[in-house]
Structures are given as structure tokens and as C-alpha cells.
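User: My advisor, Dr. K., asked me to get a structural model of this assembly before our group meeting. I'm new to this, so sorry if the format is off. These are the inputs:
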Amino acid sequence: MLRVRFAPSPTGYLHIGSARTFIFNWLYARRHGGTMILRIDDTDIERNTDQSLQSIFDGLNWLGLGWDEQYRQSDRLDLHRNAAYQLLASGAAYRDFVPAGTDEGEKSHHDGPWLFNPGQREISVEESDRRAAAGEPFVIRYKVPRDSSEIITFHDLVYGPQSKSCNDIEDFALLRSNGMPTYHLASCADDADLNISHIVRGQDHLSNTFKHVLIFRALGSKIPEFAHLPLLVAPDGAKLSKRKHGPVVSVTTYRDAGFLPHTYVNFLCLLGWSPKDNREQLTRQELVDIFSFEGVNRSNAVVNFTEDNPIDAKALWLNSQHMRSMPVEDLLPYVEPVLAEAGLAVPYPAPWLATTVDLLRARFNTLLDYPTRGRAYFADDFPVEADAVKNLDKPGAREGLRALGAKLEANPEFTEASVEKDLRDLADELGVKAGLLINGARAALTGQPVGPSAFHVFTAIGRDRAIARLKAV
RNA sequence: GGCGCUAUCGUCUAACGGUUAGGACAGAGCCCUCUCAAGGCUUAAAUACGGGUUCGAUUCCCGUUAGCGCUACCA
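Assistant: The format is fine. Below is the predicted structure of the whole assembly, which you can bring to the meeting.
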């Protein structure tokens, strides 16, 4: 049974790279009928916050992909501690009584890695037990083999065969002196206990995997498959960091910018993975059907953003593509709440919203465009842009538009065709170009110099409102 | 410093020894047109560098350089 997990630690908001890791895990699980597990890795009690936990759930819920099982590491501390003591008992680990932060060998970092605190590995079991019983603080470390220069190997589904000498692996900590497990221990103990079959995570864990192989081995557990993902980096090439790059790396930035959740999923998939057939816009089902680690590349991907524009241009384009191509009835549930939040009501009964959204979406890029650029369709109070005023100020424009208002009022028919005929007839009568009235009408009806074909605007605004706006110029 | 990973247009990427190095976004131009978009067409833009291997390297090997990651009782 294929089982994968996404294991965020609640120390900040859900960031874009984490979101992608979640998505790739989810895709892989769905692709192969496996189980998707959400595990909150909250063993760092110093840095965890409830607010962060909430924002992770907010982000995940917004993506709308869901998961099958959920765990929290802090509920499973006994499991982790038992694992640590199992390793201690089997001789795979030992107590290190050197106080935190005073590791000897810190200074020897220049000529090589720090490997262990001298003398600690050799403390006898009896002495170790006695000092622990006496209350002396200690950390439990993995006793990495030192006698032979053993090579640890594993095969990564993305990066291929990996190997590292034990001479380059330090005696990493398993259990802190405060009794809390470290990430390495908790993660492996849980992965083993939860029968995780594939570990899919960021490439920043590639080097750590050797330690994990060591832990799984000492625990007597089956070693899972690994798939490491290239990192998402900032335009300057640096790892995306919450601290350095601010909220632009948060999932909520795209949500709040009016993106469809699926656009974001689609966009993130294209960062570090390719369907290899030049397709870019893909539905969720298409992604599930074709996702594989074969298509994941090995170099970091740059997320394009600047301080004044946190949104990657390609993501914006992708969003406009999705908005235009999805069934309009599927788009409405996303548009409606955005309108409501802006305090805008839908002015006409049922078919109208679908028709109007369909009219507008060809030139809109985000959901936020509906209440802003599309405000005139939903409300009578809307701003009149300077360039729209220019159209209205053209000689004869205002008079012509008022006359058009009267003419439309006198004609009970109000269709695109009838409005066009009335307008063109009037232009002839007045001896002005039809464009003067057409562009003027758009300006009068929407307050904007640009937008959909004017005659479509008339029917979308509706007879009464259109006439009123024309007469008011 | 040590270890690991990576290197194709500005960005995301395709080409798993033989292509005029392809696509997309962003840029420029043209067409369409009641405006603006959309759409169509065109254009500019890349194999980090140096050695090998080979009849032939973007592709395989080595080195250099650069970037990233790990090197915490963070994850």
C-alpha cells in the first residue's frame, strides 16, 4: 500500500515551497491510489505557534486537495522516546553529557566536520545509566559507525543513487536534554510507525537522508523510497525564506490576490516538474493522470516576484486561462463570495450573473477584477476614469448620449441588435461618427474607456440602468 | 572549511549522442477591431567555462567557476 505524508512544522505560515511539496505528495498518492497523510511536525516547542498551525490549515484548505489521515507529533512523544531508548538499549545510540552549546570540536570545523564529543561514546553503559539516574542532563546521540569507513547509500527517485561515507556523518542528536525528540528521530519513528512507503520532501533534506537511513536501519524498519524535490528559490537565487522575503512566499498571497486554487496548484506543478509535452494549462485530473517523479528535474526553480509585484507573471497568465476555459458555472462559486465581500449584490436574476461573468472573464485576470474593474456591472456608484471622461468630453458626445438615452427609452425593444441600430441611426441623424457614441456609451455606462464590446455592455447593464446612465452624462 | 546537489533564452521548461536547440510567460512588431483585452502571425533571446570520450556532444567523463543545501539538543 502506497502511503505518503506531508509534514509541515508550525513555525510560520504555509509557504509556497511547502505547498508544492504537499501537492506533489497528493498527486503521487492519487495517481497510484495511495493514502495521503498530513502530519504536523511540532517537536520544536520553542518555535511552534498556534497562529502558524492555523495558517497552515488555512492554506491547505484553500488548495482544496484534502488528505486522508492526520496526525500530530506532539501526540506521539512516547513513540519517539521509546524509539530513542530502543536505540540506546541496542547500542546504536549513547548518552552525551556535554551541555548544549559547548560541544567540543566546534573549533575544528575548518579542517573537517564535527563528528562527536570526545570521550562520550566510550562511557560505559553502567556509568551512563548511573549518571542519568542521578539527574545529570544528557542528549541521546546516534552512534555512527567509526571503525570501518562504511558508505551509506540509497536511491532517490529524482536524484538517483546517493552515497555518503560515515566519516562525513556526525553523531547527530536523537533526544534532546529536555526529553523532546529531534526532527530526525521523530520523523523517522513516525514514518516507520505510520508505514510511510514514499518520503517526498524538499531537497534540503537530501543530505539528512543518510542519517535517516541509519535510523531506519537501527530501528529494524523497512527503508522507504525517497523522492527529493528541487527547491523553490527567490529571484536572487536564495532559498525562499519567510524572514527574508516576507509574505510574498506565503500561499495566502496568491489566495488574497484573487487566484483560483487550482491555478495555484497548476502553477506550482510547473515549477520543477514538466509533463514534457509542452502543455502548461492542466486540469486537476490531468495532473493526477500524468504526474510522475520522472518528470521532476533536479535544479532549483526561481519564483519570479519583485517587491512591488509579488505575483509571478506566468501564474497570472495561467489564472486568466483557467478563468476563461472552465465552465462558467464552475467559476461562479468563486466570483460570488468575492462580490459579496466587496458589498456588491447581483442586480438581476439567475442567468444574468453567468452571462455577465462570461462577458467579463475574457479580459479579467483574477477574481478581484470582478468587484473592481467590473464594479459598474454590479453597482450604480462607480468611479469614472480620466480617459473615460475624455471620451465624454469630445464635441457632441454628451448631447448625443443623452439623445441616445431618449431614443432607447422610446423603443421597448432592447437587444444588442436593436441598440446598435438605434445608435447607428442616431449617429447618422446627428452627423457624427458611430464611434463617438459607441465609445462614449461605454464610458457612460461603465466609467471606463475600455471593456467589452459596447453593445454587449448595454445588455449586461440592462435597459433601465443603461438609460439612466446615458441621461445622467 | 568538509560533505552533498545543481548548471539550456530574463523566468518556467523540452530535447534521455545526430534538431535550423522546441514550447510557454514576460518584451517588441503586425493583423483583427467600436475601445481594451482575447485570438492569429512575426521577431529578439539560451546550452557557464576548459579539457577529454566519440565520426558526431546540450546530452557521457574529468576539472574550473558559480549557485543552493546539510554541517544545531531547527525542521
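One thing worth pointing out at the meeting: Chain A has a mean pLDDT of 93.

User: Perfect, thanks a lot.
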